[in-house]
DNA sequence: GAAAACATACCGTCTGGACGGTTTTATTGC
DNA sequence: GCAATAAAACCGTCCAGACGGTATGTTTTC
């Protein structure tokens, strides 16, 4: 008989809140030590409510990954649309989607999911499949050594932001982005 | 009154076994869902024995990180010794220590620890301090944009090997290494 | 009034780690 | 050289709390 119990029902919003809460808790504590109680509490929902939306813990993590990949796909497609040069187009879009400040809609989610991926082997598999698909899909335009190198550097920058291990001034970040972009054309 | 109880005591060897076991279990399941029981069993020691060497779980993970950083330092120092060119020397050593096949003594350990770092916030802090120290230490020779870019790419390659997300033929890996080395001189 | 969207209560299992015992190794005294 | 004693290196058991998940209500919504 809590307040949440009597408020207006908005299942889709609650679902998003749950994903949001799970994502930030993943960031703080890692996917392995993520607990259903904590997620439910952070989202302002009872555990029963959480389990109504996601039948078990694995489903919750799966949901996170689904949401994540959709957003990533969308961000990359959007970035590719405004790029006239075919060569390295995917690589530049990848750079923009993952690194350039402001280019990624909700930065926190990404970081959190990186950790979840590292933790759960089956999520790792799904992620691997996605990466391979992309690599096949853009083999015609983004298979050069430098393009691959740039994408690895983007991954490294991403990892750094997860670990918060590299404090970089904005000016430096811009220079790096410019150099990476430059390399993507060669 | 088990067999293990009566065998010859070799505390240092047991300690290493425990670290080894913890590392590979980290790789499989992530640091968050690492259990003392599993580590002890994998190392062929009782949980009591494990807790004799490491008073609690945090101490075990700390021990892993200590061991890891020592090895990394050693590998980098070793690689730097045989490099006559000062500019980018640290970056090339980092590349060799982390990426080049065979350059890293025990590959599994590194990967496992990456995950542990992602999980535990206080380990993350210690790692961050190490990275910052290195960056200050080699600011004179390895601060160029391209050097930083190369190090990020190495991190990305590392992440890829953890996630097993990039299946790369050896020839391609060699080409990448060569290109990265080349960039480290500019 | 049926179904969806929640909440509450509860259960079985797992996990960290405290504790006391036993055996091996090192040190000391003679 | 050899007991005697201390200390280190383990083992096995037990427990309190945490956690995932079930089962059963209660309230909205359609």
Automatic annotation (TrEMBL), chains A, B:
Transmembrane intervals: none
Q: Which UniProt keywords apply?
A: DNA-binding
User: InterPro entries attached here?
Assistant: Homeodomain-like_sf (IPR009057), HTH-type_TetR-like_transc_reg (IPR050109), HTH_TetR (IPR001647), Tet_transcr_reg_TetR-rel_C_sf (IPR036271), TetR_CgmR_C (IPR041479)
> Where is the DNA-binding region?
35-54
Q: Which GO terms describe its molecular function?
A: DNA-binding transcription factor activity; transcription cis-regulatory region binding
Stretch forming the signal peptide:
none
Protein name according to UniProt: TetR family transcriptional regulator
Q: Where is the HTH tetR-type domain?
A: 12-72
Q: What is the lineage of its organism?
A: Bacteria, Pseudomonadati, Pseudomonadota, Alphaproteobacteria, Hyphomicrobiales
């Amino acid at each position: 008989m809590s307040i949440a119990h009597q408020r207006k029902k908005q299942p889709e919003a609650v679902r998003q809140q749950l994903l949001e809460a799970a994502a930030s808790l993943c960031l703080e504590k890692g996917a392995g030590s993520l607990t259903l109680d904590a997620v439910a509490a952070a989202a302002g929902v009872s555990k029963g409510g959480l389990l109504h939306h996601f039948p078990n813990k694995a489903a919750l993590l799966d949901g996170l990954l689904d949401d994540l990949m959709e957003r990533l796909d969308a961000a990359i497609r959007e970035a590719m649309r405004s790029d006239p040069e075919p060569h390295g187009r995917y690589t530049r879009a990848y750079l923009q989607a993952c690194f350039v400040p402001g280019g990624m809609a909700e930065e926190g989610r990404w970081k959190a999911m990186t950790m979840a991926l590292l933790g759960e082997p089956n999520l790792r598999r799904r992620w691997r499949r996605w990466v391979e698909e992309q690599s096949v899909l853009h083999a015609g335009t983004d298979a050069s050594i430098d393009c691959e190198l740039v994408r690895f550097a983007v991954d490294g920058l991403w990892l750094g932001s997860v670990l918060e291990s590299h404090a970089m001034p904005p000016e430096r970040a811009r220079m790096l982005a410019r150099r990476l972009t430059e390399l993507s054309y060669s």
